[in-house]
Design a protein that fits this description.
By secondary structure, the chain is mainly alpha-helical. It is built from 15 helices and three strands. Helices cover 54% and strands 3% of the residues. The chain is globular and about 65 Å long.
């Protein structure tokens, strides 16, 4: 590490400036942490707060969600986007209830066996729910490391082996590493942003290799631009799902046709939703959420 006090500085900054998000409280259960990690995938924290609180009030344990229908989970997912996450979260609750006596496992390897959980989410749950000494590296963390540690203007494409090694080299002792993980994520999300980073507010500014080199534009290797949402198949899928979420029962094809006028795109979206298990086709051209 360029400065042996850097980890302490980041944690001290986080203690002062970190947002009081509902899934960060000391009384949050491992299930609450797991739910938050599902919801936060590709979704800003500000959009997650209200659905998270509603979800946890309704389904405070894995067993509570497992007893509900998949359709209820999809309906409660509302406008969070990427609704397959609701399917995976429900399947995860069922597995935890049936195979782990209703308790979220603490081991990364066991967590990775759960439906919908990959290496990143497994480590995030292990660290933030059970204080494991593991690197949690998302896009924000990779950007902070790229600038502060490597002097690059932006992060490279994800590489678990490289990213975990980079983070482990910077992490403080195990007793302090969960807060450091959270602090690095917060720093990337709010200060060391992709555009217009707030270097004057950064606790790492003095030892930042990129800043000390004069902010060179080294390029973003492997960076991809997110596809436009307006008019996309994603928007079409969301419009069709919104009709089913708001309906008390099955809906007709005519109702779906009114929701999205472009026929070819609507049919493509409907087929993909059926293939994903988010919509069930019924007789007489009717459709419903999975039961």
């Amino acid at each position: 590490m360029a400065d042996e006090n850097a980890a302490d500085q980041v944690r001290a900054w986080f203690a002062r400036e970190g947002r009081a998000l509902p899934w960060r409280g000391d009384d949050v259960s491992p299930w609450g942490v797991l739910v938050s990690e599902f919801m936060l995938q590709q979704t800003p924290a500000a959009r997650v707060i209200a659905p998270y609180l509603t979800w946890m009030e309704r389904w405070p344990t894995p067993a509570a969600l497992a007893a509900a229908s998949v359709g209820d989970a999809v309906r409660a997912w509302a406008n969070l986007g990427y609704p397959r996450r609701a399917l995976w979260l429900h399947a995860c609750a069922v597995t935890i209830t049936e195979s782990f006596d209703g308790r979220v496992p603490s081991d990364v390897a066991e967590l990775e066996k759960l439906p919908g959980i990959g290496p990143y989410t497994a480590r995030a749950v292990a660290v933030f729910a059970f204080r494991a000494h593991e690197p949690v590296v998302d896009t924000n963390v990779r950007r902070v490391i790229a600038r502060w540690h490597h002097g690059r203007s932006d992060q490279e494409s994800p590489s678990a082996k490289r990213d975990h090694a980079d983070m482990l080299a910077l992490m403080p002792p195990p007793a302090q590493s969960p807060e450091f993980n959270a602090a690095m994520m917060e720093l990337g999300a709010r200060v060391c942003t992709a555009r217009a980073p707030l270097c004057a507010e950064c606790p790492l500014a003095r030892t930042c290799a990129w800043r000390n080199a004069g902010y060179p534009d080294t390029g973003a290797r492997g960076a991809t631009k997110q596809a436009r949402y307006d008019g996309s198949d994603r928007q079409a899928r969301g419009a069709l799902l919104a009709v089913l979420r708001s309906a008390p029962g099955p809906v007709t094809r005519a109702a779906l046709e009114r929701a999205w006028a472009q026929a070819a795109q609507r049919d493509r979206a409907l087929i993909s939703l059926i293939d994903d298990g988010l919509i069930l086709p019924l007789a007489r051209q009717r459709f419903e959420l999975p039961s």
